[in-house]
């Protein structure tokens, strides 16, 4: 039986409509994007995420926000980053803050007292030493950078200071691979607690005189690893380390007027690796002269604001 012409036309029309419908559906599905209602305005967000970022102008970070650094954050020459007291900065895996300009962390040196701490820490839920790379002062030669009133933890080298001389005062540096590395630096390292690190302070370079004074350097595997014998190391509490000081250069080092955890010269010598320890060294090194030493713990050394550490 032959279908009437008008029936064939209806079928063609129906097929045409179905084809158009399929095309529209396909286009609609293919163009669908995730759409969030009321997207978060970055101005209102309590978190600022910076990934492989270079500052282009002076910035001030405030306690109202938490700053999360991923990859490398660079402070270029002629730019200043000011991190105010009370601010928290978290660092992702292997994150690095490179300073080629000026970094001011915490309470200004001219201000009499620290009342809030800056917290520089790992972003990980279960943090561990070497989670992030640390802060690198990369040959800046500036005289304005400082870190005063901060907790710095879980880094590979918390403060890697090369050929510049910031003041590091009233800080707690804990649970890092190396807390402070000084390479060609005259930095002042004063009134800090440097504890539970693999190495507390490492010094390198011959023509500079970093001042390491009035610190608690305790419970580290090595308190001070010294290759700069011009370093001023005095009035520190150097107790409860596996080794309080390791000399790693052939010249002698004077490290007198420190407290080593006791007043027994033999016990003090046992906590120092120098020329007397042939079984522990593989190259020629000098001798550490630690006398005269202080007979009791230095009360005014170390981080002076322990009550601010509550909950951190």
Care to describe what's here?
This protein has one domain (47-309). The chain is built from two helices and 26 strands. The strands form three sheets. It has a 16-stranded parallel beta sheet that branches. Strands 2-4-7-10-13-16-19-22 form an eight-stranded parallel beta sheet, with no helix packed on it. Mean pLDDT is 88; it is low at 1-42. With 312 residues, the chain is mainly beta.
User: Unreliable runs, pLDDT <50, ≥5 residues?
Assistant: 1-42
Helix share bin: 10-25%
Q: If you average the pLDDT, what whole number results?
A: 88
* Radius of gyration using CA atoms only: 29 Å
Query: Kindly, what is the distance between the CA atoms of the first and last residues, rounded to a whole number of angstroms?
Result: 89 Å
The helix-strand sequence is HEEEEEEEEEEEEEEEEEEEEEEEEHEE
Describe this protein with a few key phrases.
single chain; 312 residues; mainly beta; 16-stranded parallel sheet; eight-stranded parallel sheet; 2 helices; globular
Concise description?
The chain has 312 residues and is mostly beta strands. It is built from 2 helices and 26 strands.
């Amino acid at each position: 039986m032959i279908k009437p012409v008008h029936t064939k036309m209806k079928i063609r029309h129906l097929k045409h409509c179905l084809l158009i419908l399929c095309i529209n559906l396909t286009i609609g599905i293919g163009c669908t994007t995730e759409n969030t209602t009321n997207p978060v305005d970055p101005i209102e967000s309590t978190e600022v995420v910076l990934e492989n970022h270079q500052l282009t102008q002076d910035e001030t970070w405030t306690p109202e926000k938490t700053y999360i650094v991923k990859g490398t954050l660079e402070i270029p020459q002629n730019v200043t980053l000011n991190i105010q007291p009370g601010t928290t900065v978290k660092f992702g895996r292997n994150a690095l803050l490179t300073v080629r300009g000026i970094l001011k962390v915490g309470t200004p040196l001219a201000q009499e007292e620290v009342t809030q701490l800056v917290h520089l820490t790992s972003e990980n839920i279960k943090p561990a030493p070497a989670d992030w790379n640390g802060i690198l002062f990369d040959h800046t030669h500036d005289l304005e950078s400082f870190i005063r009133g901060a907790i710095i933890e879980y880094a590979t080298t918390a403060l890697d200071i090369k050929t510049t001389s910031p003041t590091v005062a009233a800080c707690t540096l804990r649970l890092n691979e190396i807390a402070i590395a000084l390479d060609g630096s005259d930095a002042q390292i004063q009134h800090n607690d440097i504890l539970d690190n693999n190495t507390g302070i490492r010094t390198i370079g011959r023509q500079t005189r970093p001042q390491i004074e009035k610190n608690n350097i305790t419970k580290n595997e090595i308190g001070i690893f010294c290759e700069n014998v011009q370093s001023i190391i005095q009035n520190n509490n150097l107790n409860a380390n596996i080794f309080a000081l390791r000399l790693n250069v052939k010249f002698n080092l004077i490290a007198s007027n420190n407290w080593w955890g006791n007043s027994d010269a033999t016990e003090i010598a046992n906590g120092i690796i120098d020329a007397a320890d042939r079984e522990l060294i593989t190259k020629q090194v000098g001798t550490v002269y630690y006398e005269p030493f202080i007979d009791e713990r230095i009360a005014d050394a170390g981080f002076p604001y322990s009550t601010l550490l509550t909950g951190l």
